[in-house]
Write a sequence for this structure.
Protein backbone atom coordinates (compact mmCIF):
# COMPACT_ATOMS: atom_id res chain seq x y z
CA UNK A 1 0.00 0.00 0.00
CA UNK A 2 1.36 3.37 -1.01
CA UNK A 3 0.97 6.28 1.35
CA UNK A 4 -0.89 9.08 -0.40
CA UNK A 5 -0.36 11.52 2.42
CA UNK A 6 -0.93 12.06 6.06
CA UNK A 7 -4.54 10.75 6.10
CA UNK A 8 -3.24 7.23 5.46
CA UNK A 9 -1.05 7.34 8.58
CA UNK A 10 -2.51 5.33 11.46
CA UNK A 11 -0.90 7.74 13.93
CA UNK A 12 -2.73 10.67 12.29
CA UNK A 13 -6.04 8.75 12.35
CA UNK A 14 -5.62 7.90 16.04
CA UNK A 15 -4.62 11.49 16.80
CA UNK A 16 -7.83 12.67 15.11
CA UNK A 17 -9.79 10.25 17.32
CA UNK A 18 -7.96 11.73 20.31
CA UNK A 19 -9.08 15.24 19.33
CA UNK A 20 -12.69 14.05 19.18
CA UNK A 21 -12.34 12.37 22.58
CA UNK A 22 -10.80 15.48 24.15
CA UNK A 23 -13.68 17.59 22.82
CA UNK A 24 -16.23 15.15 24.26
CA UNK A 25 -14.41 15.02 27.58
CA UNK A 26 -14.07 18.78 27.94
CA UNK A 27 -17.76 19.33 27.18
CA UNK A 28 -18.32 18.12 30.74
CA UNK A 29 -15.83 20.60 32.22
CA UNK A 30 -17.23 23.55 34.17
CA UNK A 31 -18.03 26.62 32.08
CA UNK A 32 -15.44 28.69 33.99
CA UNK A 33 -12.78 26.48 32.38
CA UNK A 34 -13.80 27.42 28.80
CA UNK A 35 -10.91 29.86 28.48
CA UNK A 36 -8.57 27.87 30.70
CA UNK A 37 -8.07 24.15 30.81
CA UNK A 38 -10.74 23.35 28.19
CA UNK A 39 -9.15 25.66 25.63
CA UNK A 40 -5.62 24.48 26.42
CA UNK A 41 -6.51 20.79 26.15
CA UNK A 42 -8.36 21.27 22.90
CA UNK A 43 -5.52 23.27 21.34
CA UNK A 44 -2.88 20.77 22.47
CA UNK A 45 -4.90 17.87 21.07
CA UNK A 46 -5.50 19.67 17.74
CA UNK A 47 -1.80 20.39 17.46
CA UNK A 48 -0.91 16.69 17.39
CA UNK A 49 -2.55 15.65 14.09
CA UNK A 50 -1.90 19.11 12.64
CA UNK A 51 1.86 18.74 13.13
CA UNK A 52 1.81 15.18 11.83
CA UNK A 53 0.06 16.38 8.66
CA UNK A 54 2.31 19.38 8.13
CA UNK A 55 5.48 17.37 8.67
CA UNK A 56 4.34 14.58 6.36
CA UNK A 57 3.84 17.00 3.51
CA UNK A 58 7.05 18.99 4.03
CA UNK A 59 9.04 16.57 1.91
CA UNK A 60 12.24 15.99 3.85
CA UNK A 61 12.99 13.50 6.62
CA UNK A 62 14.47 16.29 8.72
CA UNK A 63 11.34 18.45 8.45
CA UNK A 64 9.06 15.48 9.03
CA UNK A 65 10.97 14.52 12.18
CA UNK A 66 10.90 18.13 13.40
CA UNK A 67 7.10 18.30 13.13
CA UNK A 68 6.71 14.88 14.72
CA UNK A 69 8.76 16.18 17.65
CA UNK A 70 6.37 19.13 17.86
CA UNK A 71 3.41 16.72 17.87
CA UNK A 72 5.12 14.69 20.60
CA UNK A 73 5.59 17.85 22.65
CA UNK A 74 1.91 18.70 22.28
CA UNK A 75 1.10 15.18 23.45
CA UNK A 76 3.17 15.79 26.58
CA UNK A 77 1.30 19.07 27.13
CA UNK A 78 -2.03 17.27 26.80
CA UNK A 79 -0.90 14.51 29.14
CA UNK A 80 0.00 17.13 31.75
CA UNK A 81 -3.31 18.94 31.30
CA UNK A 82 -5.24 15.70 31.72
CA UNK A 83 -3.32 15.00 34.93
CA UNK A 84 -4.21 18.50 36.17
CA UNK A 85 -7.89 17.90 35.37
CA UNK A 86 -7.77 14.63 37.30
CA UNK A 87 -6.64 16.57 40.38
CA UNK A 88 -9.28 19.31 40.29
CA UNK A 89 -12.41 18.85 42.35
CA UNK A 90 -14.85 19.71 39.55
CA UNK A 91 -13.25 17.44 36.93
CA UNK A 92 -11.62 14.58 38.82
CA UNK A 93 -14.67 12.29 38.66
CA UNK A 94 -14.84 12.28 34.85
CA UNK A 95 -13.86 9.20 32.86
CA UNK A 96 -10.43 9.77 31.31
CA UNK A 97 -9.84 6.16 30.24
CA UNK A 98 -10.44 6.57 26.50
CA UNK A 99 -8.42 9.79 26.26
CA UNK A 100 -5.59 8.23 28.26
CA UNK A 101 -5.56 5.12 26.07
CA UNK A 102 -5.60 7.04 22.78
CA UNK A 103 -2.92 9.44 23.99
CA UNK A 104 -0.69 6.56 25.07
CA UNK A 105 -1.08 4.86 21.67
CA UNK A 106 -0.37 8.07 19.77
CA UNK A 107 2.69 8.87 21.90
CA UNK A 108 4.13 5.38 21.39
CA UNK A 109 3.60 5.61 17.64
CA UNK A 110 5.13 9.08 17.47
CA UNK A 111 8.10 7.94 19.52
CA UNK A 112 8.68 5.05 17.14
CA UNK A 113 8.38 7.26 14.04
CA UNK A 114 10.73 9.87 15.50
CA UNK A 115 13.24 7.17 16.36
CA UNK A 116 13.07 5.74 12.82
CA UNK A 117 13.68 9.18 11.32
CA UNK A 118 16.89 9.86 13.25
CA UNK A 119 19.59 11.30 11.03
CA UNK A 120 21.63 8.62 9.34
CA UNK A 121 25.30 8.61 10.25
Amino acid sequence: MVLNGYKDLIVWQKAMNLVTEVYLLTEDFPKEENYGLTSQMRRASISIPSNIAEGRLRGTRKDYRHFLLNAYGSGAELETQIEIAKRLAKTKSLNYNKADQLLMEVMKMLNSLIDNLKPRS
The first helix runs from residue 10 to 26. Residues 44 and 74 are 5 Å apart (CA to CA). The chain has a mean pLDDT of 94.
